[in-house]
Amino acid sequence: MLLLFNSCATNPVTGKKDIVLMSEEQEIALGAQSDPAVVAQFGLYDNKQLQQFIQSKGQAMAAVSHRPGLKYEFKIVDSPVINAFALPGGYVYFTRGIMAHFNNEAQFAGVLGHEIGHIAARHSVQQQSKATLAQVGLIAGMVISPELAQLGDAASQALGLLFLKFSRDDERESDELGVEYATKIGYDASEMADFFLTLQRKQQDSGSTIPDFMSTHPNPAERYTTVHELAAQWKKKENLTTAKVNRNEYLRMIDGLVYGDDPRQGFVENSTFYHPDLKFKFPVPTGWNHMNSPQVFQMAPKDGGAIMNLTLVPGETLEQAAQQMLQGYKLQPVESQSITVNGLPALAIVADQQQEQQTVRTLTYLIRYNNNNYSLMGITTAQSFNNYFQAFKTTMDNFSVLSDPDKLNRQPERIKVVSVQQSATLGQVLQKYNVKNDRLEELAVLNGMELKDPVERGTLIKTISH
């Protein structure tokens, strides 16, 4: 870690002295070192227009921030979770999930300013000075070595940074800065308050994924009022007679955006993981949690006593891949044998990692298919290995080629922006576009409206299509 010395630094926003454990050079280096791990974990969303949009708005806003000298980078990552986050040194990420839930450019600009505010006020640097980085990338509740889930410190450090909790004061300060920066580049910053209502409704929706940061954010109702007041003050201060909202422009830009989970990157149905693009499948043990990202598919029982990972391992042959894997994870082989898994050549390897407190034992099947080496690795303590062995083996023995056309052709849902043909309530309009009853409320939240709200003819709204 880069926390080498204790020093006082002047906060660029407040002008006061802060106790921080890293210099600006170290802060920039930490962000630069962590960025590739974040991109590898989530993947970049493949849409040039949206990537250019966040870059151009981000650079314009960074120029009016309290730290215009940093080299900022702005990226949209391929995740359905509603989130935006910043790393030290000028790295800002929005998920496609949050882009789907904005209803105009001004809402986007307010949140963008909020994230730049965290960087400008050095919040993550201060938080890191107070907290030990959480090891993430593993399903919560894991009790075994985090090294087995992440190769190298940079990845776990980067992902840990994303999960730092900011204090309520930090969040309030970032709200204030978000309003200031959005106003300075001509947007109506009061729109950010409406987006907080969307977040609040999403949070109340049972089963919806909402980022942890909401738990430390100020009360949404209080935030709503404060942001409106601040926006009015900054509008006056900047002599802004007409502030930009750009609703239609924004909606047209996100037309076609992937919404929710993208099955092309793999999906679980009836306790089986299917990957349409890579054309394989395998069972997920009954009752196990699972989590998918472009880099790794993870499964773990609810008691957290074991984990299974699917990853790709480089190598021209299975033997090369085995060497790479054993060295990378510092594993000592116990036994290995060549096998065949549903007609595919494979290696089965039992290997250990010695730790201070205990020995971790792994069962890995390396399977060669379509010039890729797939590693299915089951991990637990040596003590518990026999308890989980059968679950590991059953999943691995049933890795097979996917040929079912229904699964191979599965497409993601996408946002479809339509122009309302006839004035009615939002609920009535959505029903005309064949939105099922059990999804009406979800679509109302997506549009930042209530089902009973009147919608005039010619209004653009979001629907969902395949």
Q: Key terms for this structure?
A:
alpha+beta, 21 strands, four-stranded antiparallel β-sheet, globular, seven-stranded antiparallel β-sheet, single chain, 466 residues, disordered N terminus
Structure, briefly:
By secondary structure, the protein is of the alpha+beta class. Helices cover 37% and strands 24% of the residues. It starts with 6 loop residues before the first strand and ends with a strand.
Describe the structure.
With 466 residues, this protein is an alpha+beta fold. It has helices at residues 24-42, 48-63, 96-101, 105-120, 123-130, 153-162, 168-184, 191-204, 220-237, 247-254, 318-328, 385-397, 405-408, 426-432, 440-446, and strands spanning 7-10, 17-20, 73-77, 84-87, 91-95, 258-259, 267-269, 272-275, 280-283, 289-292, 297-300, 306-312, 332-341, 344-354, 359-369, 372-381, 400-401, 413-419, 424-425, 454-455, 460-465. The strands form 6 sheets. A 7-stranded antiparallel β-sheet has the order 10-11-12-16-15-14-13, with helices on both faces. A 4-stranded antiparallel β-sheet has the order 7-8-9-17. Helix 4 (105-120) crosses helix 7. It starts with 6 loop residues before the first strand and ends with a strand. The relative contact order is 0.10.
SSE inventory with pairings:
Blueprint: E1 7-10, E2 17-20, H1 24-42, H2 48-63, E3 73-77, E4 84-87, E5 91-95, H3 96-101, H4 105-120, H5 123-130, H6 153-162, H7 168-184, H8 191-204, H9 220-237, H10 247-254, E6 258-259, E7 267-269, E8 272-275, E9 280-283, E10 289-292, E11 297-300, E12 306-312, H11 318-328, E13 332-341, E14 344-354, E15 359-369, E16 372-381, H12 385-397, E17 400-401, H13 405-408, E18 413-419, E19 424-425, H14 426-432, H15 440-446, E20 454-455, E21 460-465
Parallel strand pairs: 3-5
Antiparallel strand pairs: 1-2, 4-5, 6-18, 7-8, 8-9, 9-17, 10-11, 11-12, 12-16, 13-14, 14-15, 15-16, 18-21, 19-20
Helix pairs in contact: 1-6, 2-4, 4-7, 4-8, 7-9, 8-9
